[in-house]
Specification:
The protein is an alpha/beta fold. It has helices spanning 5-8, 12-33, 35-43, 65-70, 104-120, 139-151, 163-173, 182-194, 216-226, 340-347, 378-390, 401-417; strands at residues 84-89, 99-103, 128-131, 154-156, 177-180, 206-210, 229-236, 241-247, 255-257, 262-267, 281-287, 298-304, 306-307, 319-320, 325-326, 331-333, 336-338, 353-364, 367-376, 423-427, 442-444. The longest helix is centred in the first third of the chain and has 22 residues, at 12-33. Bound molecules: 5'-O-[hydroxy(phenylacetyl)phosphoryl]adenosine.
């Protein structure tokens, strides 16, 4: 079990001291070694000698995804390629991917940070860990793999896809911990139902799910369906991969951040002003110990808030809330900021719909229009289909009175809680395409 009490339960003053020392060394290193940072710091007339510790962090300029793209592929590396032992890259939906590099020490630090995360979620050396995150340039597979091995668990490196085989190995090998995206966990469950497998009798105990936004309601749904504890793990390839933070299985109340390696701040995404603890905003991270690809004040685009109250599990490191959304997938519908995860939470208030949904945004004249397409539960589908067959006056799915009522109640909840009027379209179970990687919930027709 990798519970690093020295660093995870540190007195906060000592932690700040450690962070300050590491920050000073980092700033000097990037200034000396990376022309991009030297230029960036020179532009705002900041030199390494002016950074005395964490208290001076806000004087440093921020970095963003486009800086990484501009320096593609290796322009931000702070070590010669000879010392780089691993390269990962983001999938890059637009144009070139962003590339990140690791030295041997970086790989070891990552394994350690991610091992802490998996241990925090309850993984021990007695576990059998099925890693169903994709292996490859994506950091999910290898990140969880090295971490679980470091803990001493038995790792099944199955990668993503192969749903039936996932289920077979889960049963035959007695998997106790599953690592994958939350949507894949739901997908595998669906397939188990088709195969008439009772997954609640599997030895599976814990799921360590992340790489995409999910809601508290979705957690409850997954926990009930699988009869497990589901913990949220967060990370991004630019910073390290999975293992930046993770929930503890004891409290499941915020994700413990590995703050001795990753220094967090929350800013207002519009003004870039640093916000006080507890306020929602964009997470900004400075990597304190990375060698090959250090980042200074990197704007993650992820919306969360921080809480440095000690946790019941004993850890004292700052916890971040589950990611509420991204600054760039925030939808603005008639002036109201809407995150897909908020809609998901409202949808899942109804037990009669499934967490398989799509948000289709279009423009009618000058007005933005949001249509929620959501699958109804198999039970409701059966009830409605039988109803349609046995009644003469109701001929279509959408006219069925149960669905009309359900639609109105979802519309009312969305209006009351999020503050917008939406259209709701019900789909049959299985009609919404499943994803084996990250799910794309939003289709924005306004951009086409
Ligand atoms: O998704 C790393 C990872 C792998 C994290 C496995 C957790 C588990 P990227 O592909 O670079 O890296 O994508 C990073 O995914 O900025 C968030 O927007 C989103 N994301 C990651 N974890 C979570 C999470 C990996 N737990 C981007 N909740 C990040 C919400 C998440 N969003």
């Amino acid at each position: 079990m990798i519970f690093d009490r020295e660093h995870e339960c540190m007195n906060r003053e000592d932690l700040r001291q450690l962070q300050s020392e590491r920050l000073k060394a980092l700033v000097k290193r990037v200034y000396d070694r990376v022309p991009f940072y030297r230029d960036l710091f020179d532009k705002v007339a900041i030199g390494p000698e002016q950074i005395r510790g964490v208290e001076d962090l806000a004087r440093l300029p921020m970095t963003r995804k486009y800086n990484l793209r501009d320096q593609y592929p290796f322009g931000l590396f702070a070590t010669p390629m000879k010392e780089v032992v691993r390269i990962h890259a983001s999938s890059g939906t637009t144009g070139k991917p962003t590339t990140v590099g690791y030295t041997r020490n970086d790989v070891a630090m990552w394994a350690n940070a991610c091992a802490r995360a998996l241990a925090c979620a309850g993984t021990t050396e007695d576990d059998i860990v099925q890693v169903a995150y994709g292996y490859g340039l994506f950091t999910g597979g290898l990140g969880a793999h090295y971490a679980a091995e470091l803990i001493g668990a038995s790792v099944i490196p199955i990668s993503g896809s192969n749903t039936q085989r996932q289920l077979m190995l889960m049963q035959d090998f007695g998997t106790t911990v599953l690592c994958c995206t939350p949507s894949f966990a739901l997908y595998v469950w669906d397939v188990a139902q088709q195969l008439k497998l009772d997954v609640t009798r599997f030895p599976l105990r814990v799921g360590v799910f992340g790489a995409e936004p999910w809601s508290e309601a979705m957690r409850r749904d997954i926990e009930r369906k699988w009869n497990i504890k589901a913990c949220d793990i967060y990370g991004l390839s630019e910073i390290i991969g999975p293992g930046v933070s993770c929930e503890c299985v004891e409290a499941q109340d915020g994700l413990h951040l590995n703050e001795d390696h990753f220094l967090p701040e929350i800013i207002d995404p519009d003004t870039a002003e640093v916000l006080p603890e507890g306020e929602w905003g964009e997470l900004v991270i400075t990597t304190l110990t990375k060698e090959a690809f250090p980042l200074i004040r990197y704007r993650t685009g992820d919306i969360t808030r921080l809480n440095s109250e000690p946790c019941v599990c004993g850890r004292t490191n700052t916890r971040m809330d589950r990611i509420a959304g991204r600054t760039d997938d925030m939808l603005i519908i008639r002036g109201v900021n809407v995150f897909p995860s908020q809609v998901e939470s409202v949808l899942l208030m109804s037990p009669r719909v499934e967490p398989h949904y799509r948000l289709v945004v279009s423009r009618k004249g000058a007005l933005d229009n949001l249509e929620i397409q959501v699958e109804i539960s198999p039970g409701l589908y059966k009830e409605v289909s039988e109803g349609i067959l046995s009644t003469d006056d109701v001929t279509t799915f959408t006219e069925h009175e149960t669905l009309v009522g359900l639609k109105q109640s979802i519309q009312k909840n969305v209006k009351d809680i999020i503050g917008i009027n939406v259209g709701v379209v019900f789909k049959e179970p299985g009609a919404i395409e499943r994803s084996e990687g990250k799910t794309q919930h939003v289709i924005d027709l306004r951009k086409e």
